[in-house]
Design goal:
heterotrimer; A mainly alpha; B alpha/beta; C alpha/beta; A: mainly alpha; 15 helices; 78% helix; globular; B: alpha/beta; six-stranded mixed beta sheet; 37% helix
Amino acid sequence: MNSRMRKAITISLPFIKFKAPVLLLLTGLLLVATAIAASTGAVSIPLETFLSGDLSSSQKAVFSFIRLPRILLAIIVGASLAVSGAAMQGLFRNPLADPGLIGISSGASLGVAVVIVLGGPITGVFGFYSLSVAAFVGGLITCLLIFRFARLNGTFSVIYMLLAGIAINALAGSGTGFLTYLSNDEQLRSLTFWTMGSLGGALWPAVIVAATVVIPSTILLIKNARKLNVLLLGEQEAQYLGIDSENLKRIIIICTALSVGAAVAVSGIIGFVGLVVPHLIRLTVGPDHHLLIPASALLGAILLLAADTFARTIISPAEMPVGILTSLIGGPFFLWLLMKQYAGRCGI
Amino acid sequence: MIEVKNLFIKIDGKSILEDLSARIKKGEVTAILGPNGSGKSTLLRCLTGAQKVDRGTILLDEKRFSDYSLKDLSIKRAVLSQSNPINFPFTAMEIVMIGRHPHFESGATGKNNAIALQALESVDAAHLSERIFPTLSGGEQQRVQLARVLAQLWEQEDAYLFLDEPTVALDLKHQHQLLSHVSKLAKEKHFAVCVIMHDLNLAMRYAGQVILLKDGKLFATGDIATALNKDRIEEVFEVPGEYVQLTRPIEQGNR
Amino acid sequence: MKIILTCSFLLCALSAQSGERQRMITIGGALTEIVYALEGESSLVGSDTTSYYPVEAMKLPKVGYLRTLSAEGILSLNPDLVILTDEAGPPPVLRQLKSAGVNLRTLKAGRSLDDVKRNIKSIAKILHREKKAGALIRRIDKANETLSQMTGNTPYPKTKKVMFILQHGGGAPMVAGTDTAADSIIKLSGAKNVVEGYAGYKPLTPEAAISLNPDVILTTIRGLKQAGGKETLLKNPSISLTPAGRNGHVIAMDSLLLLAFGPRTVEAALELNQACQGL
């Protein structure tokens, strides 16, 4: 028995030992991606010049007002989307869930469509941030509605949430559709581009607002990661294991809604990251949320930063909507990993 | 001890349990028996504190459930529910570790790890520890889940263990292994073990006490050897009494 | 024989008259403008929502936006002829109209003065107003001469570099490349489009907007409004770090006037030229 036990321990060790290296590796990769992103762009700022600090005033201005906020925003938004995706998949106990289920994207799209197509006073008051404000408000209202319907009978039901989500997403979608129908060419174009996502609007205020929402939400989700593991056994089981699942579900939804709401508000709809980054992590290091959530944050940041660096350089001076690229980079990679790894650590 | 007094449960206007009084004693295995729809699972949910009680009282060690925090309860009792699908590629080991969740703050990871392994060992599933849980067979999953529940109460004494049809997916060998293991826990660690079962022969062999339900009402309770007889079986289960071996094989049952 | 001749003469006269009074719909602001410029508006029974100049054109029954036409809406006005730009659509609706027996006349959307003149001639032919057309074209040519003199007077280095922003929602501004109406009007006005790297309207990387060094930001009145006004636009680093942004050189013009390539195009180019020189 003793030798058998020891054997089992050595087998289980890689998982425990793996944790630190994975996070370290991802942090390293993020630093590299940041360095590359910082030295790439339409305005040439070579890394050596940058490191020597010998920048011309226009280079300085471009770097500090455009490139740096954009890099930070890519990191924040990427992390937010990936972490929220992981949390949603845990909450719904379904590896195919994504933040879209709680209505953020559809609500945000509707808000943006209202501003773009009907325009008017909102645009004037908030100026450049009118789209962000509209997206954030639209996303949160939809999410609140879904949340409200999910707890009609007193306790909060994930199934009701899913069903209410489908209905309310459809409603928001029809609203957006109607506004799309009313729109002219230019409005249609900006609506379409918005739904493909862009980090071009990375201004400092946007970065700061996004950071103040995303960072605390992410920390709170990481803190609740172990509980999320327990929730995967089932809500009742979680209760038996001493977890107030009602409260946990609320925390997860609120954190995700705020975090994704902020991300969508500043960047439009960037697909793929929220769904697939947690998968990539799960396929390589397993589904333990304690590791999954921080690792997803890092990988989400890396993926979006890389995609955005491509997006703004690949067809320079024009830029590609980054949502197209996240799918373009992530999709094939994911398929490859799927074929390679799923035989070993199959989940669905 | 759990003491149930005049318990009434209504769900969606339908009466599920009516005026039920019973006791779950420590140091013994209590079998909850009865035909489908007789209220067994609802009773179990009441006993674990998961079901809100409309009328009547349930006292766990002389205190109401509302006097316990979820955390206190999680250290005092564990529940193996009927299988809940898990869609994520956890290893068996990771699943059992989740059972240690109430002890993460106090215990070191290494210690919890060792306990999880011992728990797997105890259900004859140590060899499954690195296997991916959703790829295991139904019976293997059931044993891993049991290990998870056992791990939750591993170092406890006087705890409560609830099992809802734990033998369903198991082969004959593991059915007996499971029940003899939990009856040993009842004896050695003074657990109160409460099991919903359908196999009356198994119940006769391993349980000391019985709660026999019919249509939401208590039909009989007490020492299983005296509470179960041919007439009662025929009336409750509507099968010929000869189907059940009523002589209690004492020497195995008290192992 | 005489009777037959008289009859056929009468018939001809009648058909000529009914030609005068045919029921016409124009799809495309520039085409509607041309009809008004040729004083043929009495035959117009409808137009699309991009036809808002001259003011009277706004009173015409509207059959919708030129790219999202509906067959029934057009048929309800019972037109003999629909004149539309090649941008109009969607194609299935056009096919429906054709199969419903509506006479469709598609004209190329203008990108140059020659296009404008050609469209004027085509419409004049339909309206039997060739004389008016001749006068209108002469007016355009004359104005163009003035324009050429003015642009010719500007030595090359002084040529303003213009960036046309269709929209700026705070992210990447949607900027006109080559092969756009904006590109044509900028060149016509004697200025230079800063974007040469791509064709069509594309979102421009904010950094690229700065490295292109535009002297002037050109946009439409609606585009400026959507961007939150001039002040807001100038606050965005993708604008504020350019020479145009530093000096507040933002010109906003009506989109129909600026981009439609109708009878007022030379006026628009003159106006743009003046605005650029005046900065």
